[in-house]
Amino acid sequence: MLLAGAVLTFYLYQDVRQQVLSQFNESQLLIAQQAAERIESYFDARSRDVRYLASLTSLRRAEAKMMPADVRTAFTRLETAYVKSIVVLDATGKVVYATAGDAIGSDNPGSDIETWARRPSSKGTVRFVVEKPDKPGAATTGEDLESRTPRLFLVTPLYQEPGAGGVPGAGGTYAGMLLLTVDLGMLAEGTLGRAAGRNLSPLRIWVMDEDGTLLLQSEHPEMVLKSIWGTTEECNRCHVSFNYAEQMLTAKQGTLDYQLRGRPSKVAAFAPMTFEGVSWIVVVNVPREDITGFMRTTSLETVGLFGVVGIVAGVTFLSVYKNARQEIVIAEKAKHLQEEERLVEQLRESHQSQKTLNALLNLALEDMTLADLLHQALALVLQSTWPATLGAGTVFLVDENAGELTLEAHIGVDRHILELCARVPLGHCLCGRVASAGRVIYCSGIDERHEITHPGMAPHGHYGIPIAAGETMLGVLNVYLAPGHPQDADEEEFLGSFASTLAGIIVRKRAEQSLRAADEQLREQATLVTLGEMAAVVAHEVRNPLAGVRGAIQIIGRRLPPGGKDALVIGEIVARLDALNELMKDLLLFARPPHVRPSPVDIMVLAKETSALVSQDPTAQDVRFEIEGSAPAVMVDPQLLQIVLLNLFLNAAHAMHSSGTIRVVVTVSDGVCRIAVVDTGPGIPPDIRDRIFTPFFTTKPRGTGLGLSTAKRLVDIHHGRISVECPPDGGTIVTIELPREQQAQNARD
């Protein structure tokens, strides 16, 4: 009986051992696969970062002021993602900026990387380079040559685009290279540190390229940069052979056992990683003793116990042992399942966060307005499966002049909140506190910090995240959470990274808008100069002879019998000459407006007088005017302002097809007089709103296209502002803003 029990015990021990080893191998292979996938995903994400940095105007133009700030902002975010340095080289191969300052000024011309970067086909691409210290060209990154650790970096060419403010495209001039250096050791350690269980050491990972060269081996750093195909006497001291490494290169993925001389046997799981034509084998190993040690101890204790009570209760012992074995297997399975579920969940969250950040960076490359970008960026966060939100949120930007936050983008927010939170003072309510404190604020429900509320507000929580570029507070990202949603550090870290990336995009968009505005102003000034020269020619060479022609035609008309066919033709000619003369007058008024002669003007009286003139026009007889408000006297030129109002009233009447109501509202606040002209027409189509003030642009069959452009010109020389708004329910609102005290200057000053 004792012998049978011992044999049975040995059999059960071997059975359990094989099951545990099989399950452990499966778990280790999953960890190796996840580690390889995370490394590959990491390089893909950094590749997008490199493309985004290369698209910045400051890098493409090597701007001494903006480039360091842009690179430092990106490096602050990427430094925590195992990025060692960012280096910018100009077209001569000279380092013009590096986050590691000692590399600035070094020369690196003629390298293979530079030759690749200068090829037109390389523009917009990213090259993944593994640079080994014992090979030429190692000085490209400006790092220490004595280290045996291979240098990994992503490189992309910099091209200066033709034309200011242009969107990157074909063509351009080679301007240098951008290099992003990655710390492979920290990346591998961090990858396994998150992927492995708490019982595995992050040092038990190594990486081998497709040529059999070790790129990382934390347990045996002396082996780094040595190839399994070039063994030496020193290698043979520990290795009987490198057959296990050859099997890894051949199989690409799997598990195997191997053992060095005088060392414990190890279980290794390996998986492939491929990126930009580079293939690696990522290996995770653990001593077999860690797996089987606990089983050997358990087995010895069981044999001893069986020897004591086996003769007395052999059958009972077998039953108990079998149950114990099943419980061990079940417990191990449960443990591994829990670990795998946790790993899968972490991988899913990491993948989703990286996907969202990549989508945000892609938005930065799109040609869209800042308002559209903020709305789409907010949608990326709210539509993401992680972090879980209520699908509602807002984006505020700081108005430094008013000391307030202005609501710029919103999704799924109650209309009461849209009205109450259109402008939020800094330090007030939750979002104002975030902007003032410059840090993330979390709340699980509506508390005393919600100073802006309304009856019937649904319960909810918040993450309030500051949008800041360095020390400059740009705005606040506010997402709505389910009431009681637990605070999560990973969620806050992701939202902080999202807001930091969005801040860089906002700074860039504003710079692009300023550049476009400056270009537009230069083009407008050039147009005005050309029109001024043309106006002088028109006045001298066309208008005066035109008056003579009209007089001669009228004399001929008087000699013809009234009511005859020839007299009608003469009348049509005179009408056409009058229309041409009006066009000449409009052109001269736009190109060379008269000197401004400001005087105190009652805007209400001027608006009523102008409406009376418009009412006499046959095309506006059925238009009703409503003039309301009050304002003190404003220093303007009454004749020029009446021309502005006359053009606006006639445009409104024509838009309403000569039937409807034109409402004029006059108000004064903060030293500015505002005149709002509101009509009940169909409104201006969205696709032409940006062009209505462009000279000669018109939608009327016989329009000159100078009415609104002249109105804007006359408002501008009064140091004023004119804007157009079309409400969703129809109609058009044109608002004129004029300073009360500041006197206008001559348009030709």
Number of helices: 17
Mind summarizing the main beta sheet? 6 strands, antiparallel
Task: Specify the CATH class of one domain.
Answer: Alpha Beta
What is the CATH fold-level name of one domain? Beta-Lactamase
Termini, distance in Å? Answer: 117 Å
Strand order of the largest sheet: 13-12-11-16-15-14
The name of the CATH superfamily of one domain reads: GAF domain
Q: How would you sum up this structure, described in words?
A:
- The protein has 749 residues and is α+β, with helices and mostly antiparallel strands.
- Among the domains are: 39-183, PAS domain (Beta-Lactamase), CATH 3.30.450; 368-592, 2-Layer Sandwich (Beta-Lactamase); 595-739, Heat Shock Protein 90 (2-Layer Sandwich).
- The protein has 17 helices and 23 strands.
- The protein has helices spanning 2-54, 57-60, 66-78, 112-118, 184-195, 233-236, 243-251, 288-309, 314-364, 370-383, 415-420, 429-437, 489-558, 565-591, 603-615, 638-655, 707-716; strands at 83-90, 95-98, 127-131, 151-160, 173-182, 205-209, 214-217, 254-258, 266-275, 278-287, 393-399, 404-411, 423-425, 441-443, 461-469, 472-481, 599-601, 622-629, 634-636, 659-669, 672-679, 721-725, 732-739.
- A hairpin with a 6-residue loop joins strand 22 (721-725) and strand 23.
- Helix 1 runs parallel beside helix 9 (314-364) and helix 14 (565-591) packs parallel to helix 17.
- The model is unreliable at 135-146, 164-168, 194-203 and 743-749 (pLDDT under 50).
